Amino acid sequence: MTTLSGLATARGYAFGPVFVYRGDGEVPIPQYLVESGSEEEELLRLRAAIKETRRDLEGLISVLRERTGRSDVRVFECHLMILEDAILTKEIEDHVTGDRLNAEAAVRKTMNGARTQFERMNDPYFRERVRDIDDVERRLLQRLTGRGRNTHLELKSPAIVVADDLTPSETVQLPREFVLGFATNGGSATSHVALLARALGLPAVTGLGDITSRVTPGKVILLDGTNGTVTLNPDRDTMSQFSVLVERQREFTVSAISGPPAGTLKDGGKVRILANIHPGVPVAGVKEFGAEGVGLYRSEYLWLDREMEPTEEEQFEAYRKAVEMTAGLAPEARTTIRMLDIGGDKLMRGISTKESNPFLGNRSIRYLLSHRDVMRTQFRAILRASAFGRTAIMYPMISCVEELRDAAVELATVKRQLDDEGVAYDRDIPVGAMIEVPSAAIMADILASYVDFFSVGTNDLVQYTMAADRGNDAVSHLYQPLNRAIIRLMKHTIDAAKKHGISVAVCGESASDPVAGVYWVALGVDSLSMSATFIPAIAHALSGLTRADLDEYAQVPERMPQGATGDEIFAKCRAWLIARLPFLEDALA
Ligand code: PEP
Ligand code: MG
Questions:
Q1: 546 and 424 together in one domain
Q2: Residue 204 maps to which CATH number?
Q3: Do 491 and 418 fall into the same domain?
Q4: Is 506 within 8 Å of 273 (Cβ atoms)?
Q5: Active site residue 192
Q6: Rounded to two decimals, what is the model's pTM?
Q7: Please, what sign has the CA dihedral across residues 21, 25, 26, 32?
């Protein structure tokens, strides 16, 4: 029995056989002759892909080195050597310049040759190197073509998906009914794979370093997304203890569902509990878990995995479906559609351009304001959907007041167009700003007069405030939602909203964490929006607390020394909550 430790990315427990997801060397490639005279250009493309692949490998190696004493670093160092091998590189380049083969075809031809040589060797060590060549070839071809093999089609029975890393589109394509959970080499607790795992209500452990090479496909493993561990070859005792945990998890959810409506405090006070949803992702339990509306509809998932923008009609149909589904959740239920949040790690083939620093680049609202046609089409589709049920528009990544002003001018233009065309829509559709860039939180008192609501995106707010990439597990220790810097920004934002009489929500993943989510309620947010499967735990916690309890909880960080770290504040808050609500111990394990 071996237990591997990674990051506790999506809470919950699961056990089942392993399905290893990889695009193993069979990346479909185009093959053609490069136009005479364009060989140099093709070489540049090849060299850029080699450089990117080298960066990928170096990133992986540094993650592994962090966890000292890992012999598997050598595997990837060897991959780096293959990638940089002068003879192989020369051969690939010669195929491009001499035979005028396109870069993909040149790589495949050269790697096929190398594979054949290794396969002929008698020494099993060298024969094994074929797998390394496969791996390097796969990485390089994926970089050149931007795509991998559709291994998701091979998942035909329930299993735990083990992968190097999964992009949002790969995760979305997996057949939901067969996925019991995720365990990945890379990825962090706040990456988009993590968000999707939570949206699907599945446990996930990421940042495991080399799990793909340690598991045997088909063998049962135990996945503990609450504590961030994966157990290989579990013995009988461990297996039966684990089954008890899985059963307790199920009972906890059932008892929370049958409790008072989500968001009811012990003294009858109310907080709105909403769901985060993604178009195209099967959503687990929005209604059963008691969501009173949709606080974050991540519209950019309509753009994923495609070469062209979705049309107005496609968008309208998707939004209308969401608005109609939401209308059935509660009498006042509203769908808050977040406009296209492209950029950062949400890159879209054929649309995103290469930027050296995409997280600080032309993303989200900036992209929309520099592509007004895209913005207007999206406004039209959302406004048309608003005729079918309560809808709100939310702008992502607002960093200054001019973005709100410019967007308002554009929205007014689209409304006039629809009026001229006689198209129905909600004239008073509320408009909100996400507060996820520190400048927006600092200027919340000014921004508040331009919008009807705020929704704090703590995933990005923590990332930008702490300058810690949300997708990089090497800096995940800095990713502290209860760091005093974040608490100050949150308080300022909430105070500004109250002063201007607008509502304020939290829709980042911290809303779903009982320690942080309840703390935001204690500070005064009106609603929490999260992946629906987390609602029962939060609802259960809130139902055990009065407003007076929450006021006391809000004081916990205040009573600590000013120098207390984010982790210390988190631990103190956690201990306070468990002392009040002992049943949370399991959910917060
Ligand atoms: C956030 O940043 O907290 C957020 C909700 O947006 P996303 O995670 O989609 O970037
Ligand atoms: Mg965000």
A1: yes
A2: 3.50.30.10
A3: yes
A4: no
A5: yes
A6: 0.70
A7: positive
